[in-house]
# Entry
Amino acid sequence: MYKDLKLIKILVAVDGSENSKRAGDYAIKMGLELRADVMALHVVPTGKQFPEENLEKGTKHDYAYLDKIAEQSISAGVDLEIEIIRAQSSVVNEIVEYADRKNIDLIIIGIRSVSEFRFMLGSTATGVVVNAPCPVLVVK
# Structure
């Protein structure tokens, strides 16, 4: 059953946190191993400032981690698409809807912080796991 499974599109949701950066590392490595396309998505939460300039390549200081993941993908020879979008609803809904629209085969997401209750995920990671149209790999 699983030997016929083919992962063609991997989505990594990134927010600049350390665990998000680790999720980006996993996405690049998996993209290389599986010969899959990788898409990095940053969702700007409602209410945060969103510069008018085109930020698809992470050209602003706040998005320098997107430049780093882009460099890693180039070094690894992995096709990477980067997209920054403003949340029209919740960040969870934007990630889930993006994955559905783009026919994503796997979502990789980092947990925002490690709570004292290790079995608990952050609200964004939990929401994505519960609502995603595909498997989700959570990185801490």
In short: DSSP finds four helices and five strands in the chain. The first strand starts at residue 9 and ends at 13. Helices lie at 18-34, 64-76, 91-101, 123-131. The radius of gyration is 14 Å.
